[in-house]
Design goal:
Elements: H1 3-22, H2 24-27, E1 32-40, E2 46-54, H3 59-68, H4 70-81, E3 90-95, H5 98-116
Parallel strand pairs: 2-3
Antiparallel strand pairs: 1-2
Helix pairs in contact: 1-4
């Protein structure tokens, strides 16, 4: 990934985080969503957005809700970055399970430590 792609990805991550935070109650059922990463295509026209969904029981349903709001999210993003970029990227949303994996591993290690004690 080029430095240009990384800078663009960081800017998108920051702006999308603000959008998700400001519109959390009306668009996302008050879910706590963080943007864990953004990967941008070499031509900057597509972005893969990785979301961490905290304490959410039905993550797939929330992802469906987010995907239904995709056009509106892109429009809000355009309003925020229009003067900084030439192309507003098409957005694809994915669930990032890495944090859930970390919590699961910590719980396993804690359980092992309790058995050893």
């Amino acid at each position: 990934m080029s430095i240009r792609q990384e800078k663009h990805g960081k800017m998108l991550q920051k702006e999308l985080a603000v959008i998700f935070m400001e519109n959390r109650s009306e668009m996302f059922n008050n879910a706590f969503i963080t943007i864990s990463g953004v990967q941008v295509s070499p031509d900057l026209s597509h972005a893969k957005v990785y979301l961490s969904l905290f304490n959410e029981k039905n993550k797939e349903e929330l992802l469906r809700t987010i995907n239904l709001q995709q056009v509106l999210i892109r429009k809000l993003l355009a309003g925020r970055i229009r003067k900084q970029v030439r192309i507003i990227p098409e957005l694809q949303f994915f669930i990032d399970d890495s944090l859930d994996y970390v919590f699961k591993m910590e719980k396993l290690f804690n359980d092992i430590n309790k058995k050893d004690s």
